[in-house]
Amino acid sequence: PSLIGQHRGFFYGNSSGIDVDTNYLTGQSLVRKSPKVTSQVALSDAVLAGEFKFIYVYGTNPALTLPNQTAFRRGLVKNDVFMVVHDPHWNETIEFADVVLPATSYLEKEDIVVPWSHWHVRKSNRVIAPLGESKDEIEVMVGLAKRLNTGSEMVYEPPWEALEKAFDGALAKDTFQQLLDGNQVQMKYKPLDEYQTSSGKIEFVSESDGKKGSTDFPYFEPTKTGPDEYLLLNSAVREYTHTQFQDIVGPIPAIVWINPQDAEKNGINNNDEVFLANTLGKISASTQITDDVPVGVLWSPKQFPGKNGVPFNTVCPSTPQHLGGGPVFNSTVVRIESV
After folding, report:
1. Burial 109-128 (b: 16+ CB within 10 A, else e)
2. Which CATH number is correct for 229-338, 2.60.40.1500, 2.30.30.100, 3.40.50.720, 2.40.40.20?
3. Interacting residues of 32 by C-beta distance below 8 A, sequence separation 6+
4. What's the sign of the alpha-carbon dihedral 305, 310, 312, 317?
5. pLDDT for 241-276, tens place per residue?
């Protein structure tokens, strides 16, 4: 947008535009030592390499979502790795856990969810009391801190007091008490003529990354495929949010779309079982022949759990993108093999 004179013109998220002090909530602003940060995309390699001996999982299902699943799962089953999963639903990651803790769902706890696509926020009230032995994340963390005799006061600060401090100056005209009383309030937004860059301006090339040889503008680098190789694309399907709701509507379907010309070339009919394979592993899927994908391209629903316990992300590489460090799920190259 900036190339044609648009001051603002695209949207990715507004987390950097609001003024909630998340560093205070995480405790980052109260400690001197910065925590170690590992790329989520490359986490499978780190786990396999033994970088983590204790893993605590909550709010995610990495045994389906992380790329390079073979490496991740091999790392989890090592004898010197201990994993705890804290979740309201039984999922694939729990199968690898040493301890499973039941978590409260959004219906069983009070919370404030800061929006990422608009500026209005309201307190989320609890509908029912926590069922069984389920506990929310804060209750578990405080309980662990007490067992470990952690003396830091920030760990034991009542959560709503911590939130009030973090929201200081973050609301446009309302008070935090009005938010607690159930009113819809509006967040204050940072000035639109300021940018979260080192120069405070729109930068077509990063001052820091530019020294590493980056070009002025992003460019498209086509994924290379060899003879009898295919580009495997994936995307979400409407019944699921990532891997959620499989316990309600059933597993994400293990299917693959294939162009009629590619199907004929490989002697494939509708609903045939095939393997999609590369150097990382192989997954099985049922074929659906369609003109909705071009020649040389396959498509599957993302993160399907797969047949025989081998998930889709087994064949996805764990190499982070050069720009931004994101995943390369849609740069996955596979061969088609007979079952």
Report:
1. beebeeeeeebebebeeeee
2. 2.40.40.20
3. none
4. positive
5. 888 888 888 999 999 999 999 999 999 999 999 999
